[in-house]
Design goal:
It contains 7 helices and 2 strands. With 147 residues, it is mainly alpha-helical. The structure holds zinc ion.
Length: 147
């Protein structure tokens, strides 16, 4: 006889949750993966193709391996946890490590929309990522709203 909860998508339901709640993946890794898939693997801010596991063909090349960590997929809180943002799907997007860490280096991080506009301008000038990222076509069209 089995009493243990059945894991779903690698997530073991926490004790004390209702059966409906227990099937909602709540950990940050699951939310990051969901956002990655929802965004077709592209960064929320700069639209670069991100990775969950470092691509072996880029790791093996000295010219690309140096900046590869900047393209790692991270979970970005649209509303920061320090401002009350929660670990829920509506508050989590997938962002490359470069965009995520740079946004939060500022004492008062810009809003997601404002930051997206700033990053889009830098991307257009090929000033956001290493040159090889653009040369390999890893940066996709990112929307810039009307000036
Ligand atoms: Zn990015």
């Amino acid at each position: 006889m089995r009493d243990a909860p059945v894991p779903v998508l690698g997530v073991t339901p926490a004790r004390g949750l209702s059966s409906k709640e227990s099937f909602v993946p709540s950990n940050i890794a699951s939310l990051r993966l969901q956002a990655f898939q929802r965004q077709n693997g592209r960064c929320f801010y700069c639209s670069v193709s991100m990775w969950l596991q470092p691509p072996s063909e880029l790791v093996a090349t000295p010219s690309t391996s140096a900046g590869l960590h900047r393209l790692r997929c991270t979970a970005e809180h649209l509303i920061a946890r320090s401002d009350g943002g929660r670990n829920i799907a509506d508050n989590i997007v997938a962002a490359c490590a470069c965009c995520n860490s740079t946004r939060h280096k500022k004492k008062r991080p810009p809003s997601p929309a404002a930051y997206r506009q700033q990053v889009a301008r830098w991307v257009l000038c090929r000033a956001w990522h290493h040159a090889w990222v653009y040369d390999l076509g890893l940066v996709h069209q990112c929307g810039i709203g009307p000036a």
